[in-house]
Amino acid sequence: MGKIVLELNKLMADRGISLNQLAEQVGITNVNLSKIKNNHVTALRFSTLCALCEALDCQPGDLLRYEQEEP
């Protein structure tokens, strides 16, 4: 089975936004945003995904990527 990879780190770099700035805009803690940024989560609330998309002016597909497992 493959996995979902979050591209938040790349989007933040492209937009020039810091972890602290984005955490404040999204309304979550720096610790939780850091876990999302570093792909250390197994679930993501739709409300958080919506807030990230709004803050980064992007679509969910810009944040999420499916990666197939190597055989």
- For the largest beta sheet, what order do the strands appear in spatially? 1-2
Fill in the CATH topology: 434 Repressor (Amino-terminal Domain)
**Cα gyration radius (Å):** 12 Å
Low-confidence stretches: none
CATH architecture: Orthogonal Bundle
Class computed from helices, strands and strand pairing = mainly alpha
Largest sheet: 2 strands, antiparallel
CATH superfamily: lambda repressor-like DNA-binding domains
Strand content: 5-15%
- The amount of helix comes to 40-55%
Nearest-integer average pLDDT = 95
Distance between the termini: 10 Å
Number of helices: 5
- How would you describe the shape? globular
How many distinct beta strands? 2
Task: Considering the chains and any ligands shown, give keywords for the structure.
single chain, 71 residues, mainly alpha, two-stranded antiparallel sheet, 2 strands, 11% strand
3D architecture notes:
The protein is mostly helical. The chain has a single domain, classed as Orthogonal Bundle (434 Repressor (Amino-terminal Domain)). 55% of the residues lie in helices and 11% in strands. It is built from five helices and two strands. Strands 1-2 form a two-stranded antiparallel sheet. Helix 2 packs across helix 3 (30-37). The radius of gyration is 12 Å and the shape is globular.
In short:
The chain is mostly helical. It has 5 helices and 2 strands; from the N terminus they run βαααααβ. A two-stranded antiparallel sheet has the order 1-2.
Topology:
Layout: E1 3-6, H1 8-15, H2 19-26, H3 30-37, H4 46-56, H5 60-63, E2 64-67
Antiparallel strand pairs: 1-2
Helix pairs in contact: 2-3
